[in-house]
Amino acid sequence: MISLRFKIVISTLFIGLLVIIGSYLVIQDLQTDIIEKEFREKGFLLANNLALETTNQVLVNDVVELRNSIKELKDSYPDIEYIFVTDSEGIVLAHTFDNGFPKALQNQSRPYNVMKEFVYISDRGTMHEFDASLFKNIGYVHVGLSENSVRAQIQDASQRLLLLAVSSMIFWGIFIYLIGLWLTDPILKLTKGAKRINNGILDQKIVVQSKDELGELASTFNDMASSLDQKIRDLVASKEQTETAQKYLETLFDSIDDGIIVLNADHKIIKMNRSFPNIMNLPREQVLGKSCHELIFKAAPPEKEKECPVSSIQQTKKPIRILHEIYIKGKRKILEINGSLFSDNTGEPEVILVLRDVTQERILEEEIIRRNRELTALNEISRIISETFDLDKILSKTLENLLKLAGMESGEIYLLDEPSGKFTLKIHTGSEENIIPEITPAYIRGEILVSDSIQKIPEFASNRNPGFFYAGIPVKLKDRVSGIITLWGKEPRAFSAREKELFLSIGNQLGVAMENITFYNNIKYLKEFNEEILNNVNLAIHVVDKDFRILAVNDELLKLNKGKLKKEQIINKNLFEVFPFLKEKYFNKEYEYVLNTGELFQTEERTEYENDVIYTSTSKIPIKDENGKVEKIITVMKDVSNQKRLEEELKDSYEELRLTYVKLKELYKIKDNFLSNMSYELRTPLTSIIGYTELMLDENVTSEQRHKLEIILRNSQRLSKLIKGLLDTAIIESKNPQLDMQMLSVYDIINHVAEDMKTLASIKNIPINVEVPQRLMVEGDRDRLMQVFSNLIDNAIKFTIKGSIKITAEEENESVHIKIDDSGIGIPADNLDMIFDRFYQVDSVSPQKEESAGLGLWISKNIVTAHRGKLWAESKNRGSTFHVLLPKRRIQ
């Protein structure tokens, strides 16, 4: 084994060696850099000084003096190998070479090769040439220095430094050896002392004289030896106590009422107390060595043994607490099992289980929970029955709570349908599988019917899958069954007599609730019926008792009060407190008269109420009790204020209306004259503007001028069209339009209009397709019919974004039916009748919305009507179809 002293010495020597070698290399590099820097500075200094000294000689072209100067300088510095001076053209003026200027430097003497320092290899070693320029570059000085002397200096310095490093290594080794002896002596003593402690020799002290950490460590070892010695004595003394405690624990282990078992890694019982065989009702020899799966967790198949609680403890190393149900010789037992993991004295993991028989406690708990659940369900059903008269809500909540009580999955409630005598499905919860819409009375019984097989009940056998468990609960009112509740489950369920009694009670409670709902609905219907009568009578009605307390009012009375009073502000208030003016006007005397005499009282009254005058026709009707005494008074009032007001206003308005009519006739005549004169006055200059604009467009004009001329032409034509529309309006309103009737080809008219419109349609890329037979003829005014089709096709183009326009025609008896179909935006259904009204406009889809007067379709309809024809439109969301029906011959 390598000693600690050896390791310390070797490690420290190695570290010292690395430090010395590193220092040697760093110092050598620094020294080399210093020597080389001094060498270069010397070269540059010589070159620059020589350049200053020889500038005048070169300027005066004193070659002899120049040669003497450079020779003298070379002789003064042994390190200089050569010097030569060149002029600005690179011609050598003087040099110090004994055998002539070398060819190797001829190229370097050129001005373009001059540099501050030039290094090259020659037969005399590495040469450094330092160059300097003369005044204003009239020449150049070249000084060559050999590197040999510098290398000799560096070599000498390195040898001295190496000698110093070797000496340092020797001294360092001696020093480290001595230090190692001093450091490792206490450690060796500590090692020997630790070995003694390990061997059980605890009475010998470790002696270390140093007062540092090693001395403290030796003291700690000594204290530890003393402590261990004392603990060994204590352990020997406590062994007897442990044996005594073990005997006590074993006695306690066997005497405890809970069963305790210890399981090994294979789940087999290796130890148990006396109570466990008693709990399992087995002799002790049949328990020891058995696995927990054989005795306790019998339900777990072999492939799932890893999922058992014991496996969970072994895997998670966490304690568990579970309830487990087993059957021992046919008797049900509920065990509370607590388990945890521990290790035996060999370190092997074992599981301890403590089992307590809690069967009686659990039975009591389950009974309490069941009673609470039943009580909660009954309270919930009672609460919902008392809170609402909504039958569906009551049935739904009742069925939901019954399913919870019975522990079943789905159910239905059937109610008796009086006309058919059958029970029809009212509500369902759970699975939708094979629901029966109705059941026959033969199946219904007055008590609970429970069956463990659906096949035993013919009513349901053909509609339900086999295997369902069934329970039927009657809904009874007195002795009459008015419904049946059916509950379904996939698992068998045994109901006790008490549970059946509970279900019957719920069914009876539901029957009473249904009767209450029927009674409530009847009362509600009568109340709503009476209120509906009161509120729909076009008379103001209020009812007061003999103390003049308002019992009821209808909506018409509230309207009569201009909505200033609300029903809740009036009901149960004194009539004369709500309407104090009645007493002020002595209307209370009328009520007293009716109350005292029991006779009807009728009158027409003028009442000032809330700064408003109200005229009413009033009847006060007495309502008598069985003894003939008046107990209520019904007041019926009819508001005749408007009638009275209209009568007065009618008298004043008649004369005013007559004068207005005379003025309107005069204004209408003036309007017709103005429109006629204005139209004729405007048409002449407009015709000139349109003509001159068209001529100018045929000329050679710029694009900007053409654009402006097209705007003038388009707006002039639009204005001309509006003027023509106004003239046509005047003609149509005169009820005497003049038509130039002749036989016309429908194809020619429509084709001519379509050709005129194609330019406008091409702007929006909308084709116009004409499919009109050439044989079709009608009698009509050519210009007027062309005007009609121009308006219709223009309309189709205007309201079509993309698509096409199709024009078709066919004979229909003695008429020709023309259809103009477009794929535009369509016309809303509620606008179809209004589009032919004068001045009615529909928004255009064109990006540049065009204004129009809204006369085109109105004029077109009147022209067609003048031809004894018909014009109408159809539209279904998208696209429109305009129909023109013209007679072949106009009937006079």
Question: What would your notes on this structure say?
Answer:
It catalyses: ATP + protein L-histidine = ADP + protein N-phospho-L-histidine. It holds the Pfam family GAF_2. One of its GO terms (cellular component) is plasma membrane. It is an enzyme of class 2 (transferase). With 892 residues, this protein is of the alpha+beta class. Helix content is 49%, strand content 23%. It folds into 6 domains: 4-162, PAS domain (Beta-Lactamase), CATH 3.30.450.20; 256-357, Beta-Lactamase; 366-524, 2-Layer Sandwich (Beta-Lactamase); 537-639, PAS domain (Beta-Lactamase); 640-735, Helix Hairpins (Orthogonal Bundle); 737-887, 2-Layer Sandwich (Heat Shock Protein 90). It is built from 21 helices and 28 strands. Strands 13-12-11-16-15-14 form a 6-stranded antiparallel β-sheet. It has a 5-stranded antiparallel β-sheet with strand order 2-1-5-4-3. A 5-stranded antiparallel β-sheet has the order 7-6-10-9-8, with helices on both faces. Helix 8 packs antiparallel against helix 9 (391-406), helix 18 (703-733) packs across helix 21 and helix 19 (746-763) packs parallel to helix 20. 20% of the residues are buried.
CATH architecture classification name of the largest domain: 2-Layer Sandwich
CATH C-level class of the largest domain: Alpha Beta
Helix content: 40-55%
Structural class: alpha+beta
Strand content: 15-25%
Low-confidence stretches: 844-851
When the domains are counted, the total is 6
* Rg, alpha carbons: 64 Å
> Could you name the CATH topology of the largest domain?
Beta-Lactamase
Q: Total number of β-strand segments?
A: 28
Average pLDDT, rounded to a whole number, is: 78
Overall form: flat
Instruction: Please outline the major beta sheet.
Output: 6 strands, antiparallel
CATH superfamily of the largest domain: PAS domain
Q: Provide a count of the helices.
A: 21
The N- to C-terminal Cα distance equals: 144 Å
EC number: 2.7.13.3
Coiled coil: 637-667
Protein name: histidine kinase
InterPro entries: BphY/WalK/GraS-like, GAF, GAF-like_dom_sf, HAMP_dom, HATPase_C_sf, HATPase_dom, His_kinase_dom, HisK_dim/P_dom
